[in-house]
């Protein structure tokens, strides 16, 4: 069905190119990359949710339009409904948020985190505005289709690149009596925390959860020295001092607060064992003798504290030392057997090497962004050309040329990832890039027989590549990890998805027309003109006789 010179799928494209949708894309990109960093809070979060409601339905409708019988109004309705359902599921419960995060990470290849917040459901009415934009897109605006082809990649990047991923904080825990520190690499100590070496014995799984309900025993519960069961240590909060008890956990006094940490002006509620009866206190002392903490046998539920603590006992000849980690302090706090506290520097993080650091990282991410920009642009151009169907004068093997044009960026990314994965390989990457760039230029040509009003193909390609490069560059630096390999393989995923979408759209049957197309007009032959003249004369005579 044709609508104002376009197809139903063309109207969806006009929806994506509507000024209201484009404004939402700009707001979403700016707010997620600048606003949330400069002004963190509920307001910037709600602004992102509202803009997301306007951006997702048109992009989702474009993807659904590749399926038969899902163009136009049906695709738009389904896109709005899916947006409402997924957003509601993600914001209503923790399980829904976790499932959404995993699905989105699997789809985009980028780490994501969705937070369940039912107040975000207040932005659902914005979908009514999105539907209003869909209805307004029925007006004939040929330039909107051109603008959409160039800005849809930017919309996709704005959807995927949300809050930046921050560097993981070090974690300290007890692994079967051995202190383990994880700051990107795992370390352990054999001298009570004074020196640290790489740990090869602990499991390679993730670090224990920081949730108080999932860590047993907790530093806030207290840890008692096996050689002196009546002496216990605890750390109740990251902003509170380490406390000591010399009677098995019955009474606690402040022991140590690292320099530079301000003494808190708040107090936490008493722990369950601090109000225990005499019988419970006896059970607590019994548990302390086993070294499992003063609350091991009380069975009382712990009070949820705002921040978990990290305090472990490190075995040394003749006893144990106490090792404490304050995230706001750059050093570890170690208490020796004679009661003296000292600060020990954290082990060094794993520093990136070669192209994974400094200007090399920026350059590699820029190159990956440019290649993905080419893949996205070629995807849009190829889909646009294939959807037009066979045209008179098309060269033989046009589909093969389009497929090769789509595969060229994909091959570039694969080659680069293989070359840069080997020592001494970067020069091969530069050689492959120098050879493939002219090949890309030779393969590309302006699409013949482009539909009127679709705009200049060269302009579409230039704007699309630029928008993709700028947006994806920020996404790589913020979320794709600090390595070229991660950025490169993420780019391969985008290239594969783009190529699959282009092929699917290209091979989907064209939508039928509302009215049948008439054959081209041909001038009448001499025989037709003579027959037509005789008929006109006979009809004219009969009319005159009847009129007379």
From TrEMBL:
Residues 202-212 have a biased composition (Low complexity). Residues 191-223, 249-271, 516-548 are annotated as: Disordered. The chain crosses the membrane at residues 12-30, 50-68, 359-381, 402-421, 427-444, 456-478, 484-507. Keywords: Membrane, Transmembrane, Transmembrane helix. Residues 524-548 have a biased composition (Basic and acidic residues). Residues 259-271 have a biased composition (Pro residues). This is Uncharacterized protein. It comes from Kitasatospora setae (strain ATCC 33774 / DSM 43861 / JCM 3304 / KCC A-0304 / NBRC 14216 / KM-6054) (Streptomyces setae).
């Amino acid at each position: 069905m044709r609508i104002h010179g376009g197809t139903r799928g063309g109207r969806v494209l006009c929806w994506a190119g509507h000024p209201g949708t484009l404004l939402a894309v700009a707001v979403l990109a700016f707010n997620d990359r600048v606003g949330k960093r400069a002004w963190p809070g509920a307001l910037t979060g709600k602004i992102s949710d509202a803009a997301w409601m306007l951006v997702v339905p048109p992009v989702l409708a474009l993807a659904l339009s590749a399926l038969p019988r899902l163009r136009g109004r049906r695709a738009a309705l389904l896109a709005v409904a899916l947006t409402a359902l997924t957003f509601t599921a993600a914001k209503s419960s923790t399980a829904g948020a976790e499932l959404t995060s995993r699905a989105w990470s699997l789809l985009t290849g980028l780490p994501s985190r969705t937070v369940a917040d039912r107040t975000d459901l207040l932005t659902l009415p914005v979908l009514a505005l999105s539907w209003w934009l869909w209805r307004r897109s029925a007006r004939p605006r040929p330039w909107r289709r051109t603008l959409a082809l160039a800005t849809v990649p930017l919309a996709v990047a704005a959807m995927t690149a949300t809050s930046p991923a921050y560097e993981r904080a070090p974690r300290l825990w007890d692994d079967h009596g051995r202190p383990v520190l994880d700051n990107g690499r795992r370390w352990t100590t054999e001298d009570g925390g004074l020196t640290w070496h790489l740990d090869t014995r602990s499991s390679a799984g993730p670090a224990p959860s920081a949730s108080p309900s999932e860590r047993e025993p907790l530093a806030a519960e207290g840890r008692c020295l096996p050689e002196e069961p009546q002496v216990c240590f605890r750390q109740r909060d990251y902003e509170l001092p380490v406390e000591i008890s010399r009677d098995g956990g019955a009474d606690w006094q402040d022991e140590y607060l690292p320099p530079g940490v301000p003494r808190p002006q708040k107090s936490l509620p008493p722990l369950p064992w601090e109000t225990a009866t005499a019988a419970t206190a006896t059970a607590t002392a019994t548990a302390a003798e086993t070294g499992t903490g003063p609350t091991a046998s009380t069975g009382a539920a712990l009070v949820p504290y705002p921040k978990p603590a990290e305090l472990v006992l490190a075995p040394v000849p003749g006893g144990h030392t106490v090792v404490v980690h304050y995230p706001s302090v750059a050093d570890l706090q170690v208490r020796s057997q004679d009661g003296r506290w000292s600060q020990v520097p954290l082990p060094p993080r794993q520093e990136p090497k070669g192209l994974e650091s400094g200007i090399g990282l920026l350059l590699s991410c820029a190159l990956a962004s440019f290649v993905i920009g080419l893949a996205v642009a070629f995807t849009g151009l190829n889909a646009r050309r294939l959807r037009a169907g066979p045209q008179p004068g098309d060269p033989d093997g046009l589909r093969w040329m389009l497929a090769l044009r789509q595969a060229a960026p994909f091959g570039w990314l694969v080659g680069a990832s293989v070359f840069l994965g080997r020592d001494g390989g970067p020069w091969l990457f530069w050689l492959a890039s120098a050879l493939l760039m002219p090949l890309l230029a030779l393969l590309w040509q302006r699409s013949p027989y482009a539909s009127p009003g679709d705009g200049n193909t060269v302009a579409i390609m230039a704007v699309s590549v630029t928008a993709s490069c700028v947006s994806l560059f920020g996404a790589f630096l913020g979320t794709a990890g600090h390595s070229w390999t991660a950025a490169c393989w993420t780019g391969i995923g985008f290239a594969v998805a783009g190529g699959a979408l282009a092929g699917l759209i290209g091979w989907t049957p064209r939508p039928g027309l509302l009215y049948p197309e008439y054959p081209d007009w041909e001038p009448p032959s001499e025989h037709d003109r003579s027959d037509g003249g005789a008929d006109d004369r006979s009809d004219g005579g009969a009319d005159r006789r009847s009129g007379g």
